[in-house]
Amino acid sequence: MELKSGIPVERTLKPYLIGLVLAVILTAIPFGLAATGALPRETALVAIAALALVQILVHLRFFLHIDLKTAPRENLVALAFAAVLICIMVGGSLWIMFDLYHRMMV
Q1: How confident is the model over 79-102, as pLDDT tens digits?
Q2: Is 2 helix (H, G, I), strand (E, B) or coil?
Q3: Of 3-7, 67-71, 85-89, which has the strongest mean pLDDT?
Q4: Cβ atoms of 24 and 55 closer than 8 Å
Q5: Of 51, 53, 57, 56, residue with least CA distance to 25
Q6: Whether the predicted model's global pTM rises above the 0.70 cut
Q7: Which residues of 4-24 are buried (b: 16+ CB within 10 A; e: fewer)?
Q8: CA–CA separation, 17 vs 63, rounded Å?
Q9: What is the mean pLDDT of residues 4-25?
Q10: Rounded-to-integer distance, Cα 11 and Cα 53, Å
């Protein structure tokens, strides 16, 4: 489906604006939780992690135009590679922080 100007409907500005608004909201909420201390620490951490996962999905859908239902093989391979890199970075960061904590407590 195309508009009169020949631009595909998927490439209009509307999905980008929706994604931008959602991304700003999903970024502002964790900052607000951290700044105000409105929730207990453990609950706030869980809420921030959940909002981070939702924000990843928003970026995939609205900015990268990756729909997980009909993704071609290349998209799935790219997502799998990104997931592995994220696991390595998060796991390595946690490993370093716990190791430093252990060394400082000795």
Answers
A1: 888 889 989 999 999 999 999 999
A2: strand
A3: 85-89
A4: no
A5: 51
A6: no
A7: eeeeeeeeeeeeeeebeebee
A8: 10
A9: 80
A10: 25
**DSSP-derived 3-state class of residue 27:** helix
Tokens of 48: 């921030």
Is residue 15's pLDDT more than 80? yes
Tokens 């729909």 appear where? 67
Whether 18 contacts 32, CB under 8 Å = no
Closest C-alpha among 52, 45, 49 to residue 26 = 52
Q: Which residue in this structure is represented by tokens 């939702």?
A: 54
Q: How far, CA to CA in Å, does 27 sit from each of 38, 39, 54, 77, 80?
A: 16, 17, 10, 27, 24
